[in-house]
Here is the input.
Amino acid sequence: MVDVREAAKVLAQARRVVVFTGAGISAESGVPTFRDALTGLWERYDPQALATPQAFEDDPDLVWGWYEWRRTVISGVRPNPGHEAVATVEARAPRCAVVTQNVDDLHERAGSAAPLHLHGSLFAPRCASCARPAPLTGGAEPAEGRRLAPPRCEHCSGPVRPGVVWFGEALPEPVLEAAVQEATECDVLLTIGTSGLVYPAAEIPKVAAMFGATVIQVNPQPTPLDAVAGINLHGAAATVLPALVTAAWG
Ligand code: BV8
Ligand code: ZN
Here is the structure.
């Protein structure tokens, strides 16, 4: 694809790269994206209603069961060539920051050193009352759709909650600030597998474009970020990204 060659030229000359990812990069690892995370028994719930503090307050067992099921799904899959290509960008570009909206650990397992998790992580549960980190329970791996009572904090016996950012919750300030800083300073921002609908995360590619970076989008579908993407690679991450890094750095 001529666009891949053009994108590779831009990438190979970049001094500072930001890789911005959404659920689409994990799709080919077999992880349902947020919108279709509610397959099977979960389909009767609206994810935006389930991923909220209110839902956890109303029915902690339902919400904890959903997140523990998602964590079990993640632990059972592997990073895909898209995640691995991102690790290659980090190894080859003079400077590269990975900013992800995903709550899985697939970037880490593909070799990314310290991705910035704008929406937290499934692997960092904490007490909903005193906010102390809580241990990951290796215990009962919930079947899909099964309620599971959250463990209790060993310090204050408050309920343990998933370490993710719910709708209506503020993003972790230091992480958001670092991501915005990287976006203002980069020459190239690769936005991969995100619908660009959730704010303030969706601002990151726009900030990069505003500060003069070339935005390269990888997504099989059109998204609102088409407006800021200088180069649009319409394809799947696990196919396009390996081709892109090979064309850029051999
Ligand atoms: C906040 C963690 C304020 C939890 C997530 C109206 C207008 C503007 C904003 C708002 C509004 N109403 C409400 C808001 C605010 C709200 C928001 O933006 N809502 C949206 C829906 C309009 N935002 C918030 O609430 C944020 N907080 O604003 O707080 C505040 C401030 C101060 C003090 C107090 C409060 C918090 C948002 C974070 C929510 N948490 N995740 C969990 O995971 O359970 S967001 C979650 O959904 C994901 O992290 C992801 O970011 C998002 C979307 O999920 P998906 O659709 O699955 O993924 P994605 O969007 O990435 O789409 C998949 C893409 O992949 C598609 O484009 C598809 O084409 C593509 N694809 C598919 N296959 C492939 C592929 N691409 C490449 N290769 C493939 N193979
Ligand atoms: Zn506690």
Observations:
- Residues 32-76+126-161 form a domain with the SIR2/SIRT2 'Small Domain' fold (CATH 3.30.1600.10).
- Residues 22-24, 27-28, 33-35, 51, 101, 103, 119, 164-170, 193-195, 197-199, 201, 218-221, 223, 236-237 surround BV8 (ligand 1) (CB under 6 Å).
- The chain has a mean pLDDT of 94.
